[in-house]
Amino acid sequence: GTTYVYQTFLRPYLSKHETEIDHNLLELRVRAGDMAVLYWQKAASYGQTRFFEILQYVASQSSSPRPLQ
């Protein structure tokens, strides 16, 4: 059953549209790479911002006078 369906319907369709399918897969791969770079840049920027906020907070805590006990 499955061999007949593949040979009769799927294989001819894939053969006819192979170039278009390959082109679309390549385009999808490029776009996925672009999106990965974009999200990596956003994550790095966010991490850098938070890191400097933490440093600023620690610096402000160490420079403030300590209460006497």
Describe the protein's topology.
Blueprint: H1 2-16, H2 18-63
Précis, in short:
By secondary structure, the protein is mainly α.
Strand content: under 5%
| SSE ordering | HH
Mean pLDDT: 93
End-to-end separation in angstroms reads 86 Å
Question: In total, how many beta strands?
Answer: 0
Q: List the domain count as a whole number.
A: 1
CA radius of gyration: 28 Å
Largest sheet report: none
What is the tally of helical segments?
2
Unreliable residue stretches? none
Helix content: over 70%
- Based on CA inertia axes, which overall geometry fits? rod-shaped
How would you classify the helix and strand content by structural class?
mainly alpha
Protein name: HVA22-like protein
Organism: Nymphaea colorata
Notes on the protein architecture:
This is HVA22-like protein. The chain is mainly α and 69 residues long. The protein has helices at residues 2-16, 18-63. The chain has one domain (2-61). It contains two helices and no strands. The chain is rod-shaped and about 90 Å long.
Short key terms for the protein model shown above:
mainly alpha; HVA22-like protein; rod-shaped; single chain; 69 residues
